[in-house]
Specification:
heterodimer, A: alpha+beta, Aldehyde Oxidoreductase, domain 4, Aldehyde Oxidoreductase, domain 3, 3 domains, five-stranded mixed β-sheet, 18 helices, globular, B: alpha+beta, Enolase-like, domain 1, five-stranded antiparallel β-sheet
Chain lengths: 765, 289
């Protein structure tokens, strides 16, 4: 029997919605400190060039300019996941984002004017803009800061994984399909552009940063390493964040640059990107080429998958290079497959570098895999839904990679969307000459309980109740728009019987809050939720003891409801605030406070990338119907049926928001969004030509949550944030192929690609 | 972005301002939905912007519908066109072009005059007005006006016939033919998203038939397919006298080929010339499907 909750599972609006929609929210852009200067960054004019000289003399003399810095003026360490990224570039420029110099001035306009006065002499050289060319022996070494531990000088990172007997499974295969898939550069396009305000106190030598990082404690450590400081001398405060989606997982050069400008001037300095700068200098989803070969036996069972991936790393290595951790999971463990061999290389080029992006490689992997599953079904003459159901993951399964599916809604998700979309019964009415309809199915697997890729994937909570019965949750986790503040407050309200208006969540200050690894891997509700529940348990023991004393009862089992503590099965209780006052003000004078650190049961993977990396796993399936205009190539997404194994619905409103937002990002990935590049330069650094979809493009989304009640999750919940966008592009591509009998291998599927494919099929192009 | 701004309050003041500034570099600002973007991208030295948005004269700001024609002052906004029911009934092509322009917010400020004088090959309202064979009312700094057919207005991308001492005062569209029984009129805009989109290809048509269903008037214009918006005259002439609902496949193709003969598209970041031609041909046929 399902447990009845008072708050959990209810459609409670996001607690910060009011301040956001009324303009009261304080974003990084709104911060104004006394004596603050404005910073600006000069970037290279050429994506690949020798920097022969930099002359800042005129810029320094401009009235209102306080400081101009170049690499020669600072003593710093490289940044980035591989420490291969100089904060300010010296001697050479290797990509169009490269920071050559920075200025701090009284106004933004003076700072911009000063940038124009800096003279840089470049000797332009031929760059390498294709990862395959970069692997050629004759290619120059692009990044000089790596140890060269791989066989090729331009390999930044590589991954190899395998399970099962690949050759054996190849022999057992009735059909084998091979395809090469090409995935584009997609940018986060956060509503708030990148921003930072740095304030260095040159009396006590402490640095205060107002930053929109997703991972404050890792950021504090990275910043300290970059600036050669002690991490604890750096305090990170997060203002309201206008979009993360993974873009703020890495620390980017503009952030230590802003700190350096503040250190040099002794004044607070703020750097805010323009929208164009945001397109040029913020991270992207990794572009990659995936070669996938997969087999199926005569009965439709998947036999093997062989994967080779070349990722365009760009000039420097970010967390983006580690996406194969997630990509290999999809290939090794989404649907049952007996053997898998996976190789991925991140290759340096003179292109812009990637970062992390919601889904972390999984949308790319799922697109390739789910396209090939349709092709395998076609070869076998098997129904595309049946082949998926036959091979779907199951509860209790331990995959080749060692993932434990203690709960698993994969099959139920597939069955749900197959049923609700009318996949088996619908007629496509495809007799229209111009408009053709199709339906596509895709599913996905993603971590649902964090991902142990650091020594700790944990989160700390300190919880207090004050003498007025208000509760303060001091949590390590932070809010980047995903709704964690609301969900945590709901959990406290449920457990302590305190209404939401009396619950405060403190989560923005590294000097105050306990450790947490940060917002990523769809982990916050799961990890921070469990951490909070742990703290609540401890605090309740203290409160129970005091309440029992007060009520002179031997009862130790209490209900917390309507701000009262009531012994179970009785009516007479005591007000919560009264118990707290008793604790505080009568002997032995104790605080109503508790701390707890939650570490998920997940394990570090071994050197072969095997092990149960997450506390639990999330599954989802989507069935999408499209209508393609064969006159123009335009694709209209008609209906999206989504079923997602969320463990337990904590808040249907917030969950719906994650689903809709994720799906729209997925539709953009499928159909319209791509940062176009030529010779290392971005051709469309604006919303005019970077085709992000708008409200008028939202299709009908039909969402069916699947509750599997995972014993590890808070109330049974799993992580939900990334999943909704992961299968969308795959399902749309499958639907278009279904409508037009095409073999789509690239994203985004823009109208011109469709018309070209149709013309080639007809032999008219 | 740094410029001086002058705010004439009447047409008379505007004439004076234009006269005074003849030796200076000036631009007109109406809704600013294009101008600010342009100046942000490419700042202009010693620029004076003549702000037209404070002028209240109805000839400049009003929309009037009389038995013979519709007259729109240059400052009529896209929103005003969208909201006018009579325009929607009589000239669906104009209504649809205004409605597909950018977004609700931008339509509040974007003006007819701006859309025409920017002379973008992909201008939406401009394309509809070419299909409607509108006339442009141009006033010079002495206050004299002349009317020229819109087909003579555009000289090239971002170039019009307007001289330095002139400005666009308004646009006139003739009333539909008195014998016209049915109107087949639409603006077909092709892009990748449904709003905030700049046409990759557009086709505007306004066709009138008599009691028998015979075509007595045809106006067809193509956008984003040539250096300027073009009126496909041969294609229009070809339709006269034909029954609108009896145009067979071969005639459709011939019509589409005639429309296409006016296209001279470029390949740019948004599409190739091949794609633009392919779509234009298909859209032309689709009018009769």
């Amino acid at each position: 029997m399902k447990k009845e909750y008072k708050v959990i599972g209810k459609p409670i609006p996001k607690q910060d919605a009011n301040i956001r929609v009324t303009g009261k929210a304080i974003y990084g852009h709104d911060i104004l400190l006394p004596g603050m200067l404005y910073g600006a960054i000069l970037r290279t004019e050429h994506p690949s060039a020798i920097i022969e000289s930099i002359d800042v003399s005129e810029a320094i003399q401009l009235p209102g300019v306080h400081c101009v810095i170049t690499a020669d003026d600072v003593d710093v360490n490289n940044i980035g996941y591989k420490r291969d990224h100089p904060i300010l570039k010296k001697g050479e420029a290797n990509c169009t984002r490269d920071e050559i110099a920075a200025v701090a001035a009284d106004t933004k306009e003076i700072a911009q004017q000063a940038l124009r006065l800096i003279k840089v002499n470049y000797r332009i050289r031929k760059g390498v803009y294709d990862a395959f060319e970069a692997l050629d022996e004759s290619a120059p070494q692009i990044n000089k800061f790596i140890s060269g531990k791989f066989e090729n000088k331009n390999i930044a990172e590589k991954f190899h994984y395998e399970h099962g007997n690949l050759e054996e499974e190849k022999k057992k295969s009735k059909h084998i399909v091979s395809r090469r898939f090409t995935l584009p550069r997609m940018t986060h396009a956060c509503m708030a552009t990148s921003n930072i305000t740095a304030s260095f106190n040159n009396i006590d030598k402490k640095l205060l940063l107002y930053s929109s990082t997703q991972v404050p404690f890792l950021y504090q450590r990275d910043m300290a390493h970059a600036l050669k400081m002690n991490p604890s001398d750096i305090r990170v405060i997060q203002p309201v964040i206008g979009g993360g989606f993974g873009s703020k997982l890495d620390m980017h050069p503009f952030e230590p640059i802003c700190a350096l400008l503040s250190i040099k001037t002794g004044r607070p300095v703020q750097i805010i990107y323009s929208r164009e700068e945001e397109f040029i200098a913020s991270p992207i989803r990794q572009p990659m080429v995936i070669d996938l070969t997969a087999g199926v036996d005569k009965d439709g069972n998947f036999t093997f998958r062989e994967i080779n991936i070349i990722k365009d790393n760009g000039a420097y290595t970010s967390w983006g290079a580690t996406t194969p951790f997630v990509i290999m999971q999809a290939f090794s463990s989404l649907y049952k497959v007996k053997a898998c061999r996976f190789d991925a290389k991140a290759v340096y080029t003179n292109n812009i570098f990637a970062g992390s992006f919601r889904g972390y490689g999984n949308p790319q992997a799922t697109f390739a895999l789910e396209r090939v599953i349709d092709l395998l079904a076609g070869e076998l003459g098997m129904d595309k839904a049946d082949i998926r159901l036959l091979n779907a993951n199951e509860k209790g399964e331990v995959t080749g990679q060692g993932l434990h599916y203690d709960t698993c809604g994969h099959k139920e998700c597939l069955e749900t969307v197959i049923e609700h979309s009318g996949y088996r019964t619908r007629s496509l009415q495809n007799n229209d000459k111009r408009y053709k309809r199709g339906i596509g199915i895709a599913s996905m697997l993603h971590v649902g309980g964090g991902a142990k890729i650091y020594r700790s994937d944990g989160c700390g909570t300190t919880l207090k109740i004050d003498p007025y019965g208000y509760c303060t949750i001091i949590t390590g986790s932070n809010e980047i728009g995903q709704g964690s503040e609301t969900v945590l407050a709901m959990m406290a309200s449920e457990e302590l019987g305190i209404e939401l208006s009396k619950i405060k969540v403190i989560n923005t200050d590294t000097d105050v809050k306990p450790w947490d690894v940060g917002v990523h891997a769809s982990r916050t509700s799961f990890v921070a939720g469990n951490s909070l529940l742990g703290a609540i348990r401890i605090l309740k023991e203290k409160l129970n003891k005091k309440a029992a004393e007060f009520l002179k009862t031997s009862h130790f089992d209490f209900d917390y409801s309507d701000n009262m503590i009531i012994p179970v099965n009785t009516k007479e209780g005591i007000a919560l605030d009264k118990v707290v006052r008793e604790m505080h003000f009568s002997a032995p004078n104790e605080l109503a406070i508790a701390s707890f650190f939650y570490e998920p049961s997940s394990k570090f993977q071994d050197k072969d990338f095997k092990g149960n990396v997450s506390g639990t796993y999330a599954f989802a399936a989507q069935a999408i119907e499209v209508e393609v205009d064969t006159y123009t190539g335009n694709v209209k997404v008609l209906d999206i049926y989504v079923a997602q194994d969320v463990g337990k619905v904590l808040n249907p409103l917030l969950l719906g928001g994650q689903i809709e937002g994720g799906i729209l990002q997925g539709v953009g990935y499928a159909l319209t969004e791509e940062l176009l590049m030529k010779e290392g330069r971005i051709l469309n650094p604006n919303f005019h030509n970077y085709k992000m979809l708008t409200a008028s493009d939202i299709p009908d989304i039909h969402f069916y949550p699947v509750e599997t009640l995972d014993k590890e999750g808070p109330y049974g919940a799993k992580g939900v944030g990334e999943a909704p966008l992961i299968p969308t592009a795959a399902a749309i591509a499958n639907a278009i192929c279904n409508a037009l009998d095409l073999d789509v291998l690239d994203l985004p599927i823009i109208p011109e690609k469709i018309l070209t494919a149709l013309a080639e099929k007809k032999g008219t192009k | 972005m740094d410029f001086e701004i002058i705010n004439p309050a009447t047409t008379l003041e505007l004439l004076g301002t234009i006269n005074e500034l003849q030796s200076k570099h000036f631009r007109f600002g109406a809704g600013y939905s294009d101008l600010l973007m342009e100046l942000k991208k490419k700042p202009e030295e010693n620029l004076v912007v003549i702000n037209l948005s404070q002028i209240k004269d109805t000839a400049f700001t009003g929309l009037t519908i009389s038995p013979d024609h519709v007259r729109m002052g240059a400052m009529v906004t896209a929103h005003k066109i969208v909201m006018n029911e009579q325009l929607n009934k009589d000239y669906p092509v104009l209504h649809q072009a205004a409605l597909t322009l950018a977004s609700t917010q931008i339509r509040q400020v974007a003006t007819v005059g701006g859309n025409l004088c920017t002379a973008s090959p992909s201008g939406d309202i401009a394309c509809a007005l070419v299909a409607l064979i509108a006339h442009c009312e141009i006033m010079d700094s002495t206050g004299k006006t002349k009317s020229i057919p819109i087909t003579d207005f555009f000289l090239g991308p971002r170039k019009t016939v307007i001289k330095k001492n002139e400005f666009l005062n308004g646009v006139l569209v003739s009333a539909n033919n008195k014998l016209s029984k049915n109107i087949y009129s639409a603006f077909l805009k092709i892009g990748t998203r449904r709003s905030m989109e700049c046409s990759v290809v557009s086709l505007a048509y306004h066709i009138q038939t008599d009691d028998d269903g015979d075509i007595i008037h045809a106006g067809v214009a193509i956008g984003a397919s040539a250096p300027t918006i073009r009126f496909a005259k041969d294609a229009c002439d070809y339709l006269i006298g034909k029954r609108f609902d009896h145009i067979h496949q071969k005639e459709k193709e011939e019509f589409a080929t005639k429309v296409l003969s006016y296209a001279d598209p470029i390949t740019d970041i948004r599409a190739t010339a091949w794609y633009r031609k392919e779509v234009l041909y298909n859209l032309s046929k689709s009018i009769f499907e």
